[in-house]
Each structure stands twice: as structure tokens, then as C-alpha cells.
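Reopening closed ticket. The problem is back. First fold of the pair:
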Amino acid sequence: MMSMKSVTVAEGLPTVSVPARLRLNRFTVIFSFLSIYLIWGSTYLAIRYAVETIPPLYTAGLRHLIAGTILLIWCLAKRLRPTWAQVRASIIIGAFFF
């Protein structure tokens, strides 16, 4: 038999709507897949058109420059500053790309 004390504790717990949580989870999964399809699809489409007009190594360098700039801006927005060692290593790696 259940005591009245355990029933009182169970009544005080917040209730979570299961259908709302499932809808949010479903939306998150659909949004994630849609963003993957759009980002990767547009990247491959851009590469296809860029390789027709620009040499492939310049295209790859431009892609890395744009991606690195986006990541740096994102990190700076989150107040994550790169250390001097990280900047130096990035410069060395960038020089070896050429």
C-alpha cells in the first residue's frame, strides 16, 4: 500500500506535457536535417560553379578563408579570444597552404 506521504510528494512534482515535448523534438530533428541539406547542398552547388570559372586551389583557399572568418567572428562574439600560439599556428598553416 502507498502511504499518504508519497502521494503528497508525487502531487507536488511539475507535470510535463509529453505531446509538446515530442513536437519540439520532431521540429528540432526536421530543422536539423533541413539545415544540413541546405548548407551542404548549397556548398556543393557553389563548388560546382566556382570550379568552372576559378582554379580549384583558389576556390578551396577562398572557402577556407570564408569559413575561418565566420568561425573567428563567432568566437569573438562569444568572447573567446585566440591565444598568440593559436594565431601563430594558423599563420604557419595558412602559409603552407600556398
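Second fold of the pair, where the issue appears:
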Amino acid sequence: MVEVKPRIKLDKQSVKKGETVVVKTLVSHIMETGFRKDVAGKPIPRMIVNTFTCELNGKFVFGCDLESAVSANPYFEFKFKPEESGTLKFIWVDDEGVRVEATETIKVT
């Protein structure tokens, strides 16, 4: 996986307790399915992001397992209601075990 800073956008950086936050993320990755062949006719090995997780202060917020049907540069959008201020940690892991991590801070009043 090419080392690229993922894009993360929270619709609000500061929220009241119980208020919904919309999170949008995008990570650059080729997401090679393993079904295509190169110009010599040899299969191109599968190389996808296979897991994505988001935690707030170490507590699970959102996550999913991906398959080869997901397009290049996976984009995720999800909503959650933070109960406390802290650091959101986003983690993408690909087939080779390469991890891309990013963080965002959120304040709950």
C-alpha cells in the first residue's frame, strides 16, 4: 500500500452529548481483486484493504471487513453519537498487514 495520508472529515468537531456526528473517510489504495491478469497473462495478486476500524479513546465505534468487490480508494461514511471527548483513531489494514492509521479529535460538551 502506498503511504498516503487518508482523508477524514467530521461534520462537527464539537458536539453536545448524544448529538450525532457524521464521519467520512477515504484512503488511497489500488484494491487489486486478484482476478485481473497482467499484459503477460499472469494473474495480478490480490491486494486489498481487508479491515477498517474506528475507535474513540480505544472503544470500538465502527468497523467492517472488506472483500475484493470494493472499489479502489475505499470511502466510508457512518454516524455515531459520542459520549465523551477524545481521539478518534482510524485504522485500515491490507492483505500484506500494512496498517494506515489516522486520528481526529472530537469535543463533547
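Update: turned out to be a display glitch only; the data is intact. The chain has a mean pLDDT of 93. The longest strand covers residues 99-108. Please close again.
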